[in-house]
Amino acid sequence: MAGKNVIVFPTDFSEASLAALPWARRMAGEMQAEIHCIYVVEEPHIYATLDMGPVPIPSVEELSRSAEKRMASFASAHLREGGIITRVLVGRPAEEVVRYAREKNAGLIIMTTHGYSGVKHVLLGSTTEAVLRHASCPVLSIRNA
Question: Which domains does the chain possess?
Fold first, then answer.
């Protein structure tokens, strides 16, 4: 099922991200839509500021395998009610959420925001804010207080 009957529910596997799940379920019922729960693996970055010698970093394949296991565990614990499609993607989270929603012609993206401001916002950025700016469908942002 592709099209307006798809709701994209991004997660980072945190308890905070679960705040959007009841909304996704409710809207899926109203829209007769499928929920697509997605997680995005970011490619590792090395920032060389000190000479620390070789720093082992996991490969994208290792990170993806680990994310698939975490998604299976997350789905088992929180998505038991069935009908929810899970996907692990690789890239920058906001870009991949928007791309996935466009590819599926999603009718809605539902995600949480941590509500960071000030220095935390500058340092951590805001995936939700970037999705809100670039998505071609409506985005329901649930603030996790």
Answer: 6-46+55-143 (3.40.50.620)
